[in-house]
Write a structure and sequence with these properties.
CATH class of one domain: Mainly Alpha
Strand content: under 5%
Radius of gyration: 27 Å
Largest sheet: none
Number of strands: 0
Helix content: over 70%
CATH topology of one domain: Serine Threonine Protein Phosphatase 5, Tetratricopeptide repeat
């Protein structure tokens, strides 16, 4: 059942129409008008017409289903959930409504309910890929990695060249710390579709974590080529430039990341680090405060506050910031222990 695929019926014109036939025809007319508005991306108008259709005919299953989709596009998730539930009540075999309802439950992080809906959909049709794919993602977020992998493998049984599923398997392996195995799946996805942005970005991040910076830059460049609006790609490439002391390039990337997402706390923090390194302390402080406003729980932000206070010769506050950073992330110990010892011994 897909939006826009309207059934047309041969109409027999009668001299006398019953009240019930007028009732049904009117609901159908609203429904068809709603479909046309949806196809023109007039979602608010479509919502009004679908609502009128179900008001006139409370058993109009397709109208509930399509109003559910419209509400989903308008981000009215609770209303969308009710619509798909009504559609299912009218047709227990409605595969697509189970899929959409599962998706909404997933967005509400109600993973168990989401899995139940996807499982029901799969029971209704074991040859469609989306039930397995969506359930696999849900199992992954629910930290049931073995079950997630089983579902993704089912997707590959249906289509061995499913690059999206290969990326998801890579993501699954990466979450388990199996980065080398993940790269194999990402590379396979790229071999099928050389414009697979997520695969390039993930490989770049893996090489960045391994400090293989030339490879990381190669894949970040590819990721940005295929998705020039990815603030994450610019931010992370900027971090590679920082590691190479290429502060001009780093600053350019952090600026671009902030242009693309003005609420991206990490980019403000990273830009502040570059500004501290280049002795632009006033600008750095503004970025640190903006990052703090957006995301206070960040060990690297506290670390950078420490470097800022060192730069302006406020050693007491520098020491406090370094200690707070270390409490949040022990991995900073190697970097900050020396700073803390020197400040405490002065």
């Amino acid at each position: 059942m897909q939006l826009g695929k309207i059934k047309f019926y041969t109409l027999v014109i009668l001299l006398i129409l019953s009240f019930s036939s007028l009732f049904a025809q009117s609901a159908k007319e609203y429904y068809e008008r709603g479909v046309k508005k949806f196809e023109r991306n007039d979602f608010k108008g479509a919502l009004i017409d679908f609502s009128k259709a179900v008001e006139l005919d409370k058993n109009y299953q397709e109208a509930f289903y399509n109003r559910g989709i419209t509400n989903y596009y308008l981000n009215n998730l609770e209303n969308s959930l009710v619509d798909f539930t009504n559609a299912i009540t009218l047709n227990k075999n409605d595969y697509d409504s189970y899929i959409f309802r599962g998706l909404i439950e997933y967005e509400f992080q109600r993973y168990e309910k989401s899995i139940i809906d996807y499982t029901t959909a799969i029971t209704l049709n074991q040859n469609r890929r989306d039930g397995y794919f969506n359930r696999g993602i849900t199992y992954s977020d629910y930290l049931k990695f073995d079950k997630a992998l089983d579902d993704f493998n089912k997707c590959l049984d249906i289509n061995a060249n499913d690059d999206e599923t290969l990326v998801q398997i890579g993501n699954l392996l990466r979450r388990q710390g199996k980065n080398d195995e993940a790269v194999v799946y990402y590379e396979k996805a790229i071999s099928i579709n050389d414009k697979t942005f997520d695969a390039y970005l993930s490989i770049a991040n893996i090489y960045k974590s391994k400090k293989v910076f030339d490879k990381a830059l190669q894949y970040f460049n590819k990721a940005i080529e295929f998705n020039p609006d990815s603030f994450e790609a610019y931010n992370n490439r900027g971090n590679v430039y920082v590691e190479q002391n290429q502060f001009t390039n780093a600053l350019s990337d952090f600026n671009r990341a902030i242009e693309l997402n003005i609420d991206y706390a990490f980019a403000y923090n990273n830009r502040a680090y570059v500004l501290i390194k280049t002795n632009e302390y006033e600008k750095a402080k503004k970025d640190l405060d903006k990052s703090f406003q957006l995301n206070r729980v960040n060990a690297y932000l506290l670390r950078n506050y420490g470097y800022y206070y060192l730069g302006v010769n406020d050693k007491v506050r520098a020491l406090e910031s370094f200690k707070e950073a270390l409490l949040l992330d022990y991995k900073l110990e190697k970097e900050l222990k020396k700073q803390i010892n020197e400040l405490e011994n002065k």
